[in-house]
Structure formats: structure tokens, C-alpha cells
Amino acid sequence: MTHPIRDRFLAVVAKRPGPGQTKTRLCPPLTGAEAAALYECFLVDTLDVMRQVERVERTIVYLPEDESDYFRTLAPDFTLLPQTGADLGARLDNLLRDALAAGARYAVVMDSDSPTLPLSTVEDAYTRLEAGADVVFGPCDDGGYYLVGVTRPQPRLLREVTMSTPSVLEDSLAIARSLDLKVALLPTWYDVDTGAELARLEAELAQLPAATARHTRRWLAERVEAVG
Fold first, then answer.
1. pLDDT tens track of the chain, all 228 residues?
2. What is the DSSP string of the chain?
């Protein structure tokens, strides 16, 4: 990793969209191609939010590792790093550890499938870390988290928890307590993995300003028109 030009590091975990490879739990109601196209909208909207966070080094950590050209075209203004590690926990730990070793004081990583997550929530992660929290989590209402940030490496928090289960956050908090870490929790949000969550997203977008998640919003509107 190159040396961060700022002491606040912000990364997003991303995959190259592909039919049958991305957001498969959205099929149905979507086709594989539709799920991949919608995920790309989620990712682009997430990048738009990240661009509004001030004083951060913005990075995409991506899979597969040979897809740098796709992400460079998608976001030429972001640093690109392939994900490294045998599983998600190891990949998150490697990312945050490397960012801190390269000079970041506050290292945060977020998901790429919460397109309506408010900018203020991401900014609050740094406020909490700068105020003295050892770790900050953004809880998802499915039991996981959409964001994690640290001020020093915390391998047990990430490597000793089984990811993608309903108890991810609960298990992480138990380890944090055992390590006597000061934990800050952001507002609970959600990621879009299922048809029910997609319906929730569509209902939410109807109540939010038009500038929120504009790529996702446009894609969903065009799909409705096509179906209609």
C-alpha cells in the first residue's frame, strides 16, 4: 500500500458485477443480469457518498484481483487495492492493518450495498474515532455491520468472527468487551441482499430527495417503465 496522503483512510469493499456472481439472493425478483446491473448502481452511489467525505484517502478494495481495469475506469480518482486474505475477516483485517501501517490514524471500511446510507453517518465514524473510540461499528439490522473503523489493528475482532451470520456484530462486540476496547455504534442501517430489502429500498427512495442514490433510483425507475 502506498503511504496515505491523509491521516483518515476510507475504503469500500467491492466486487466486479457479473450475472450469477453478484447479488444472487436478489434472484428472484431480479434476473442475474439485472442484479449485477443494480449492484453496479449501488457501488457508484456509494462512491459518490465517499467523494463527499472530506480529508480522507479514498480506496476501493476489489475482487477479483485481475479486475483493476474495470475499477480504474469506474473510479479513476480512487486508489485501487486488490483484496487479500482467505476470507472476509482476513481481508478486512489485512486492509485496515496495512492502512494504519502506511500512516493512517483512523482507518474505516464500508460496504458497497447500502446506497442510501447518509453521508453524515460515514462522517460520524471519524468523529467517534477522533473522540477516542478504539473501534466503531455501523450495525445492520440483519445482525452484521455496514462499516467498521479502527485506530490500531484489531485482528481478533475480524478474524475470530464468522462473517455473514446473524450474530456477526454481537460476536464482535463480545470480543471487544473481552479486549476492554472502547466501542462506538453508529445508527443502524441495512444492506440490500434480498427481495424484501429491495422493496424496502424502493419505498425509502420514494421518501428521500431525488439526489439520494441517483444511479440506483434511475435504474429502478427505468426497470419499472420497462416492465410496465
1. 555 557 999 999 999 999 999 999 999 999 999 999 999 999 999 999 999 999 999 999 999 999 999 999 999 999 999 999 999 999 999 999 999 999 999 999 999 999 999 999 999 999 999 999 999 999 999 999 999 999 999 999 999 999 989 999 999 999 999 999 999 999 999 999 999 999 999 999 999 999 999 999 999 999 887 775
2. -PPPSSSEEEEEEEE---TTTS-GGGTTTS-HHHHHHHHHHHHHHHHHHHHTSTT-EEEEEEESTT-HHHHHHH-TTSEEEE--SSSHHHHHHHHHHHHHHTT-SEEEEE-SS-TT--HHHHHHHHHHHHTT-SEEEEEBTTSSEEEEEESS--HHHHHSS-SSSTTHHHHHHHHHHHTT--EEEPPPB----SHHHHHHHHHHHTTS-TTTTHHHHHHHHHHHHHH-
pTM: 0.95
Whether 156 maps to a domain, the answer reads yes
Give the number of domains in the chain.
1
CATH number (domain holding residue 28): 3.90.550.10
Q: Is residue 121 part of a domain?
A: yes
